[in-house]
Amino acid sequence: MIKLDPTRTYPHETESRTIVRFQDCDPLQHLNNAKYFDYYFNAREDQVATQYNFSPAQLFREYKTSWVVYQHQIAYVRPATVNEWLRIVSRIIYVSEDTIVTEYYMTDDSGRQLKNVLWMTSKYVSVVTGRRIPHDPDVMAFLAAICVRDVDFHNLNFNDRIRQIKEELVQEKMEGESGGD
């Protein structure tokens, strides 16, 4: 069972680092477009395991449920290149009775240059019937604890969100250079 620790505050955003592997690049030494998904999904799996002590296999085993991908929106802003260190950020930006939207974005290692943004919409399903079902109460409580609260998903389009992320990165850069004042 998914158990939330009432004494703990859960991060709404997770981040990790990775390096672009030669085998994952095209002839121009750019990360292959399809490989962004692998990098994101591997990062998210590791992030939720370490930050939330949770794994999708836990849903499968304990609840006989899973999330299945329903839709992707992806923007290739700048190429990630062979041997480049990257930062991958992931966060849940929308939760409903049977749906989640996970937002991923990738930057250079300094966190200042946006490389890519992905929205992945997933539906909650019973692995027994293969049909969409409402989130279990424990799962819903977990999602509520980790979901970013200040993203108005229904009134935001993808391109506007890319601009917002870019602005946040610029703001963080300016705060970092001024010492946070």
TrEMBL record:
<dbReference type="Pfam" id="PF13279">
    <property type="entry name" value="4HBT_2"/>
</dbReference>
<dbReference type="InterPro" id="IPR029069">
    <property type="entry name" value="HotDog_dom_sf"/>
</dbReference>
<protein>
    <submittedName>
        <fullName>Acyl-CoA thioesterase</fullName>
    </submittedName>
</protein>
